[in-house]
């Protein structure tokens, strides 16, 4: 039954409103109790003359109050719902819920979760089992079937991933599960974007003859992604894409950020009507372009709108080639001498081992240089020439210098920017009428536009270019008489440049000037690396650790536990859960692994042919509100007002002369009546001597429980809980200890004294604990508790031990506010190494990092106490080996995260390390006292 935006779960109860007239009639005939008065003869007689002693009916306002209270109770029993949602028609004995949680689902993920929760709630109302699968999770992830509560918990724990969806693999798993649930309903909550293999995936999913299909896609696809970002000659050019079918024009703004997150450039992207691509250019000085670390589109909170940059904007590899033999006696006359001195500070220089061009050029190209400098190279062999042309077309930068050999060679249109005249031009010689020419202002269209022309440089000899219609556009530097000094031109994706002078100081003094260094540096910076940080100079395969990852919402964050080292050098590496988009490497050099490639397109997802009834729905929050609770609360309030009114009309509040004791009795009656009314509508009653938190305290001390700090990051907290759960199971199997379920604690609010040890995973993105929270931790450690800090960054610190990782820096900030005792790595003879298992080290998901504990005060006295420790237990432990990552197990008991390196025994030793830590915390240094057993027995014998 619906009335405007109101519905009722039991509309038949509304017939009870017809009893309101009867209630009104009864209330009219039931006046309140007469007022009691002490017998003062004269005063009561005076009052009798003025008014009646007993009213014959209730006051109208009291009657109205009671009628309203009865109406509220009737309405509450009818279970009204404001703005009710329409329940989906139930069909089938099960519900298969398949949700896209790839990068495109990040902007409206909350809305998708709310939609899925409605479906799960409707299934739970009828006890229907739920299959729950996500298309951007690992193929072996558990999909159910679950009950409604378990499915809802799993849904809320899942987050979007910055990776593409894998519909074929996930749909195949759901289809296999539907073999045991024939006739189930299938709900597809898609992100609206088509992907490769969709046709076969939907055919597999819907080929199981579902009883009903629920189809949900976004109403409007407004996603914009970045597919390319290149440092071009004229500026930094970016390319954006959007889904097809968008006829309306659109503008977006992209920003460039440095490695500290500061915005240093902007570009406007304009999509024409009906166009799926748009380009923009950031025309800023190349010094700023070299600082670009990432580019993102404003307002697009997903991984596809962010592009990270790598070595293409940093140091370049430059190949040097010359046909002249090096003269060791006269190095200043070597063609490459000044080029070497100019490029060494900011480029990696490589030279071939063979002077033969047929072998030298392939050797240089095999090392994937960003730029090749050829000093007076004439004719090039055909095979090497074709390879060189292909390298330039694919983005290489070729810089050539003139000389006698080049002047004698024929024109090579592919490897020269302009056509050259035969021979040379001499200026200022004995047989010349002209003077050596200075360099004039650099053209504004060239890469040297912002450089000041060198006033001390003159040219006495040069090779002239043939005058053509485009000679002005190809001129990067001129002499005073208008003849070109440096020319350049684009060749496909690459660039060819020519200095019309020799690289040594024979034709001009430019090579010995500071301008020569700046001009070469400018050309190197404008080139593009052909190799990457993932491949060495010889092109071998390299493995890079995760450095900074792109989250699903487009933010840059530290690596997640799922991220694995990237192996590159054997072709393009796909974006997966193990290799999410981001930067791989170290601070010394990184490799950019972006989500969208240069050939990526965004196409809308078309609904396939479905051989079953289809119900379309939209993503939306559940805006329905249950009014039963507010109505019951209002009825209780009116009941309390009615009780107070009756007491007041009975004169209970007017007789203040009866003293304080009588007033206290009245208040007790009022409170008792209110308590009776509340108890009638409450399912439980609390004892008057109980206090909030008593039940939790009793539950916490009833069994030993391991605790972990809630960081606020769902993925980190989930791994911590799963890790302590796995360790608890291992303790039950191997020891007499039977701990309870792990407890997540908020160090700012929760009581910490209930737990013997607290595991604290350091998350650099989490907020810094407050001073009160750190004081609580300090008090907990001083009162006998132990905190196990885990920075989980052993792999990073192992790569670059010279600098602290963000997690280690955050730990230092926390420890600065704590009373931390002197620390040392666990010695070989410490009680921790033998509290249960005999262990030489304490590995976790990573190995190699030490476990830091409180330093022993009497460590040097090895004769008196071979097992080192004091009388207490270390209040602090620090590791970087990611203990929880090694202990973490899923619902089936399988490990959730791989060890690094992948070693089965490393996980076993990690569990044993956890057992030793727990036993050490619970039993102290009891094993250190065993060394005195012979002495005690000897005394007993005496």
From TrEMBL:
<dbReference type="Pfam" id="PF13709">
    <property type="entry name" value="DUF4159"/>
</dbReference>
<protein>
    <submittedName>
        <fullName>DUF4159 domain-containing protein</fullName>
    </submittedName>
</protein>
<keyword id="KW-0812">Transmembrane</keyword>
<feature type="transmembrane region" description="Helical">
    <location>
        <begin position="631"/>
        <end position="648"/>
    </location>
</feature>
<keyword id="KW-1133">Transmembrane helix</keyword>
<feature type="transmembrane region" description="Helical">
    <location>
        <begin position="60"/>
        <end position="78"/>
    </location>
</feature>
<dbReference type="InterPro" id="IPR029062">
    <property type="entry name" value="Class_I_gatase-like"/>
</dbReference>
<dbReference type="InterPro" id="IPR025297">
    <property type="entry name" value="DUF4159"/>
</dbReference>
<dbReference type="Pfam" id="PF07584">
    <property type="entry name" value="BatA"/>
</dbReference>
<dbReference type="InterPro" id="IPR011933">
    <property type="entry name" value="Double_TM_dom"/>
</dbReference>
<feature type="domain" description="Aerotolerance regulator N-terminal">
    <location>
        <begin position="6"/>
        <end position="80"/>
    </location>
</feature>
<feature type="domain" description="DUF4159">
    <location>
        <begin position="705"/>
        <end position="922"/>
    </location>
</feature>
<dbReference type="InterPro" id="IPR024163">
    <property type="entry name" value="Aerotolerance_reg_N"/>
</dbReference>
<keyword id="KW-0472">Membrane</keyword>
<feature type="transmembrane region" description="Helical">
    <location>
        <begin position="6"/>
        <end position="27"/>
    </location>
</feature>
<feature type="transmembrane region" description="Helical">
    <location>
        <begin position="660"/>
        <end position="681"/>
    </location>
</feature>
